Amino acid sequence: MSDIQQPAQTLPPNAPSGPPLPRSTKKEGKPASLWSDAWHDLRRRPIFIVSAILIAVLVVMALWPSLFTAIDPNDPRTCELATARQGPSGGHIFGRDNLGCDVYARSIYGAANSLLIGISTTLATSLIGGMFGLAAGYFGGVTDTLASRLTEIFFAIPSILGALLIAATFRGGPLSSITLVIIALTVLGWPMTYRIMRAAVITAKSQDFVVAAKALGAGHMRIMMRHLLPNALAPVIVIATINLGGFIAAEAALSFLGVGVTSPDISWGLMISDARNRFLDAPLPLIFPAVFLSITVLAFIMLGDAVRDALDPKLR
């Protein structure tokens, strides 16, 4: 009995030979970048999620405070001395301060100036310190020496004391109190960013891709902006995120000492300063802005720690 031969299966033209390949939604052979890896790691960190939610709420509070004052629709600048230091009530859920102002409304509206000062100072210090550090780390020699000696002079000045001196000296001039605080904190805050950027650039400029760019005739500006800056930016972002919370706390300290934000502007540090003299009689006008301030500073520090852990492969 002859074997029955099965008909040969015909394959369509251009059909791939061998076992079927698994489907993939990602392009093969394309390595993941540092930022994509960091974002993938951040999304799995509870500390990042919690801090990001808190910061998002604070930003919305600063931009649209009326959304949060619907339950307590009081003007933060309308004060009644006859009702000073009254406790919480139906119309004033946080009570009133020493001047009879609504504590809840002032706490909500105070977020705008505190965040404005923190973000503006962080951007200014990152720009100044980053550019100086980029130039000093790349060129080295006399440029690095002069910039490093100048930085050491600023490091020798205590931050709060120096900012206090600057703010007190130019107080009452043409600049507003908020602008003056930003300038005072920026003058004393950029050296830390300078050192971080300088160290990152010195490490990156010895890499092969920088040597290759020089061999191909790339100019100094192209090498610094195209090759060095993107590879040295990660540690600067980490320190800037952590410093942002520190600058908000520094503004509160200056306002508490009487040389920061002044009325009619509102900030948490100014509220704490106004409420300190009657703390034993009415503690709530001091406690509530202090809680808002503490949560804000803690949120940015938590965010900075999460970003640092995500961008540093050694800490994963």
Rg on CA atoms, Å: 28 Å
Q: Please name the CATH topology.
A: MetI-like fold
Total of DSSP H or I helical runs spanning 4+ residues: 10
- CATH class category: Mainly Alpha
The helix-and-strand class reads mainly alpha
Number of strands: 0
Strand content: under 5%
First CA to last CA: what distance? 69 Å
Low-confidence segments: 1-29
General form: elongated
Total tally of structural domains? 1
CATH superfamily: MetI-like
State mean pLDDT (0 to 100 scale).
Answer: 83
Biggest pleated sheet: none
Helical residue percent band: 55-70%
The CATH architecture name reads: Orthogonal Bundle
N to C succession of SSEs: HHHHHHHHHH
Give an account of the 3D structure.
- The chain has 10 helices and no strands.
- The protein has a single domain, classed as Orthogonal Bundle (MetI-like fold), CATH 1.10.3720.
- The chain has about 325 residues and is mainly alpha-helical.
- Mean pLDDT is about 85; it is low at about 1-30.
- The chain is elongated, with a radius of gyration of 28 Å.
